[in-house]
Amino acid sequence: ALDVAEGLADLHSIDSVNGHSAMVHSDVIVNQYVMTKSGFKLNDFNRGHLMYWNTTSNTSTCPYKSNEPNPGVQRAPEEIIYSNEQTEMIDTFSLGHILFMILTSEESFDESKIDMEEVQEIVLKGGRPKYRKKFLESHHAVDRAIMKAIDMCFVQNWRKRHSSVEVRDYLAQQLEDISRTRLL
User: Fold this and answer.
1) Of the residues 50, 111, 133, 135, which has the fewest C-beta atoms closer than 10 A?
2) Are 25 and 11 in contact (CB under 8 A)?
């Protein structure tokens, strides 16, 4: 989970200013990561967007609107409605789906059981993938940490959503805390 979050945070940290990314991947799904000897690496930037700096406010990048559909069930609400306010936060939302898959070993929304339009309607209404009972009742520190990271990604309003850097830092801190506790 940390490897995956690190890959996205690294991308979002390239030339970032005040925590605002200079690039959006725009297609963060599980098969965009490749396994290398040193861990998972983010791959395939054909849908990537370079962000423009907002010279009026001089405090952030400019949101954009994608001119092409980005189908799938792992999309952020603002992508589904083709909002004019797409930022790197669409990648962070999609990261939540990957973390869900890492935790549960299941698709966040199984497209063999529910079609893309239904999933998109669920997401637009604030719905999220459902955890099995064993995860909801789990007291295991790793399960709880990944579930919290997923919640950080799945914030409906992109302006309030945690950045990939914040998710990465949270997971890194949790891993350190869990490791230290196990050593005691």
Assistant:
1) 133
2) yes
